[in-house]
Design brief:
Length: 146
Amino acid sequence: MKIAIGCDHGGLEHKNAIKAHLEGLGYEVQDFGIYEQVSVDYPDIAVKVCDSITKNECERGILVCGTGIGMSIAANKIKGIRAAACSEHFSAKFTRLHNNSNILCLGGRVIGVGTALELAEIFVSTEFEGGRHQNRINKISDIENS
Ligand code: RB5
């Protein structure tokens, strides 16, 4: 599985740690930056990571900003993206099981690196349950297309 990852200046340490962790688990990770501690606008990074998902170049994405919220707001504006801002394990698991989320957003100023690694691992390794949840996602797509 290929994972897209990106961050703004609020998430560089977490992004780099998640990338190394997922690569260590055998995932291929495409890094859309930032690569050094410079100030950037998080929507610019969100678009790059989300485009790689909607173009089927990567299967899932992880975005890190200060809170995870700005990245999730930006990502959810893009058709086909279901982004979830999570700061604990239950949500990271169930947003995959029930929402088939394709983007995980994390807050570098909210959670520690250790928690971020665990949430990222849960997110990439948990499969969508389908069934009744697919009907609900279809309704989200209907909203997107209306
Ligand atoms: C950047 O200072 C900060 O606003 C950003 O990382 C994020 O927290 C936005 O939601």
